[in-house]
Write a structure and sequence with these properties.
Largest sheet: none
Radius of gyration: 24 Å
Number of strands: 0
Distance between the termini: 76 Å
Length: 79
């Protein structure tokens, strides 16, 4: 039975693995319960990561806005 790296399993989960690798992993999943457990853990982790949303800190947003304000050319309508 071939050994699969975590990268191989992630490629499989994201449907980016080659047809040969996909077939080998699917065959191994049918025969190896430890691999099925590893795949389940990875699948759960991937699903949680896909739900993750990040937002920048307020001070970062304010720094960007201040920078834009100081470097933007003056508009014609401003007194």
């Amino acid at each position: 039975m071939p050994l699969f790296t975590p990268e191989d399993l992630l490629l499989y989960l994201y449907k980016e693995s080659s047809p040969e690798l996909t077939k080998a992993i699917e065959t191994a999943l049918n025969e190896d319960w430890t691999l099925r457990e590893k795949m389940q853990v990875l699948s759960t982790s991937v699903n949680e990561l896909d739900k993750l949303t990040l937002t920048p800190r307020i001070d970062v947003i304010l720094n960007v806005l201040n920078y834009a304000r100081t470097t933007a050319p003056e508009s014609v309508g401003n007194p």
